Amino acid sequence: MSDTTERLHMSGIVKRFPGTVALDGVDLSVRAGEVHCLLGENGAGKSTLMKILAGSYQPDEGTILLDGEPYRPATPHAGLAAGIAVIYQELDLLPDLTVAQNLLLGRAPRLGPFVRRARRAGLAREALDRVGANFPVTTPVRELPIAARQLTAIAKALTADARVIVMDEPSATLGESELARVFEVIRSLTAEGRSVIFISHRMEEVMEIGHRATVLRDGRTAGVFDLSSTGPGELVAAMIGEAKELVRPTAHPAPEGEPRLSVERVHVPGLLDVRGIEVRPGEIVGLAGLGGAGRTTLLRALFGDIKAQVTARLDGVPLRPGSPAAAVRAGLALVPESRKEQGLMLGLSVSRNAAIAALGRPPWLMPGRTGRRITADALTALGVKSAGPGQLVGQLSGGNQQKVVLAKWITRGRIRVLLLDEPTRGLDVGAKADLYRQVRHLAGQGVAVLLASSELNELTANADRIQVLYEGRNVAGFDPRVSPESVIAHTVITGATP
């Protein structure tokens, strides 16, 4: 068990982004030799707080002490040098380098200007052995399976001799035996006096490995709990809020009739196995779930953007989304979560981006006046704020970029199924209302909508039905008109209906 010596103290941490306050006076205290669990729903502020700790973000307000000394890293490299190692859920490994090169990147043993390769390999082997990994240190990371990459990332933190190790959903890609070995490593680290911040949505893991837990909710500290005297139900209640403000569901009648999209099964080995989802013309079906539950993977698979086994029908005809181009021809449209990487060409104008799907030609060959003419109505309806249609879309705020992605599909028309992945991320309240008004307008024209969002109150306000995904499977379905938000949230977090 940990002692009472304070290793890390974060006090009054505030972080603002355009249109939102991600952290609003958060406190976090971690003891030496402690496994401290950091809990909260998606969007509660966990990742932002850890990026501040790592040096990736700078806080707008607040103080941080590390072993009693002021700590404010300007970069992740400075954070690592100070003894903070963060293992993100999106692993920050370089795929073209070997395991040994990744483990000791920037810290390889040298003899003058030359890397001592044998010594580096030996140190890497020791770190891998400690986490129970038996693959060669000469293996390029891109050739490793996902679970092996996770173990590599943990081993990398060990080579850094960190005082505080942050593990963000470490079990998401691990099997039971691999996770048991990781827990052994965590216990050995805390026995040495190191501190571990453990982020997980799996209550059974939290109760097994944790000493204390801090719960974040809506960017604030909702409570600190001694896990030896706290049950999972109390933690869940703190995460979702017993008196959480609800948004009333829309009053329109639920659509009826034959489904437009009927998903028999979407399977990605080791990641996703979703069955039996239907969406009718004019219906909005919400996808709820924690990070890693499979919502993004499901939408990308239906859009032909990743390799998957898809058995589905579109208006009764087999859907074969071999590629995004084939999906678009079939009448599917995707507003992706990663708008900058997948949804936009940042070096081109607002109007050219919004017109590309409608005109079906390279946007640099498109007359500027044509793009402005055909996109004006959609951009206006969505309330896109820009210096004009000729402004580069990369210069817009993230929320306005997201609206341009939706405008692209509204301009094209001929949509039968609209796939929305976190469509309101980065939007303020008014912009969210504009976007959902347009989505409901599209549904009113017969478009079937599949909406993935980590904002449960948005799903209960806008979806006709909600499907909960948990660890790659759809585990429950709810009618938000009759199911309390707390019941749905409990299922999102635990994977089981209360």
UniProtKB/TrEMBL annotation:
Gene Ontology molecular function: any one:
ATP hydrolysis activity
**Superkingdom per UniProt:** Bacteria
Pfam assignment, any one: ABC_tran
Q: Which Gene3D superfamilies match?
A: P-loop containing nucleotide triphosphate hydrolases
Q: Where in the numbering of this chain does the ABC transporter domain appear?
A: 8-243, 241-496
UniProt keywords (A-Z) are: ATP-binding, Nucleotide-binding, Repeat, Transport
List the protein's name: Ribose transport system ATP-binding protein
Q: What is the lineage of its organism?
A: Bacteria, Bacillati, Actinomycetota, Actinomycetes, Streptosporangiales
